[in-house]
Amino acid sequence: MRTHHQVAFIAIALAVGCGGESTSSKKGTTPSADVARTAGGEAITTADGSAVSRKAHGKWESALDEFESNEKSGWTSAKCNASEKSFERAADAQSGHFAEAHYMAGLALSRCGDDGAHKYYDKALAVDSRFCKARVGLGLRDLEDGRTAQARSAFERSIKDDPQCTSGYTNLAIVQRSQGQNEEALKNLRRALAIESDYLSAFNQMALLHYDRGRKGNASELDLAEVVCRQAQMLDADYAPIYNTWGLIKVYKGDVISALRFFQRAITLDPDLFEAQMNFGEVTISFRGYEDGRKAFARAVELNPSNYDAVIGLGTALRGLERFPEAETQYERAKQLDARRPEAFFNLGVLYQDYMSGSVNELKEAKVYFSEFLQRAGKQTEFRSSVQDVSNRCAQKSSKKRGAPKCRPGRIQNIDISVEAMQVTG
């Protein structure tokens, strides 16, 4: 099962300065009469202290409304691009000196997985080098691309520049947890929650940390993980990631029915939550719920077309539905994604041995796939049982001594026996 390793950003608010004269900044000055103000007359400023003009603030508010509407209704490529442009219009109205607007333009693009988001984070940091969320955004890009050291450095700098940076603490904790530094990770999650007591991403990561500890043999940690999930649920009953995490805990506890309910809740709240789709698909297939599994894995492949495990899962669901040509297509697709991994070859072998017509040529094809599987699986622990299932060989005359263990031929030996018999009778 997979866990979500990123922290979702949220829309940000502008600061409120004291009333009276306009606030000057190193980037420029907004005339007092043109400064946006609250109903109480307080000047509205950016994070770096620049007074926001009324025109820029109006465009900012409109862009925020558009963003939040898309969050509720669902994002499309057109909506991401439109939202990006709306925030950039707000930045232009502030002569480009508007870090929050640049950041939100990037955030809008990131909702559709657009790699162009980072250029706006760079623009935000050019305006305000201590802007925490933009720094975290660049760190997350490094994390996605496997540059863990650079990501950690970005998160560490984000909290050094801004000790109130909750997303910086939380993402640093994610990296620390992945490196086995659980105590330090827990401290940083607590720091995030001390600053923002309802920061749901921190709750989710804390639950996952206790879940990890629970899997190492401490059952009380699993109970503690569930307590954290309940706390997050009380804060926001519609926060999808916490239900995915709760489902993982239930699976480990053996309560698969509850796990399915939590995974289903997660994908109902957020159909774009890749991990929940994967987890729901895996559990439903284990119960031979192939159609539900197919839908979940198909959505996962839509969300991440290059994810090997999602493609394999979709193939397995299609095989269970007896849609064999489509299953084969998915396994071949997985081979193209990563020819070094063994799973696609094993599944193709199973498909040709167990689900086709049983002809000699198909059985020979299955044997070739199984040989490729063995070559790639090697001595990897996670494939040990499958390797034995494929390669086990029994003596032609097994022992008939009472109490002697019965030998079970592996798949390759079974193929050899079947082919030999068919050729003799043919």
Which key terms come to mind for this protein?
426 residues, mainly alpha, Serine Threonine Protein Phosphatase 5, Tetratricopeptide repeat, two-stranded antiparallel ribbon, 4 strands, disordered N terminus
Question: What does this 3D model show about the protein?
Answer:
With 426 residues, this protein is mainly α. The protein has a domain at 1-128: Serine Threonine Protein Phosphatase 5, Tetratricopeptide repeat (Alpha Horseshoe). Helices cover 66% and strands 2% of the residues. It has a two-stranded antiparallel sheet. Strands 2-3 form a two-stranded antiparallel sheet. Mean pLDDT is 91; it is low at 1-8 and 18-27.
Tell me what the CATH architecture of one domain is.
Alpha Horseshoe
Order of helices and strands: EEEEHHHHHHHHHHHHHHHHHHHH
Beta-strand residue fraction: under 5%
Cα-based radius of gyration, to the nearest Å = 27 Å
Strand order of the largest sheet: 1-4
Can you give the mean pLDDT? 91
How many helical stretches? 20
Query: What is the helix content?
Result: 55-70%
Structural class: mainly alpha
Here the CATH topology of one domain equals Serine Threonine Protein Phosphatase 5, Tetratricopeptide repeat
Task: Detail the poorly predicted runs.
Answer: 1-8, 18-27
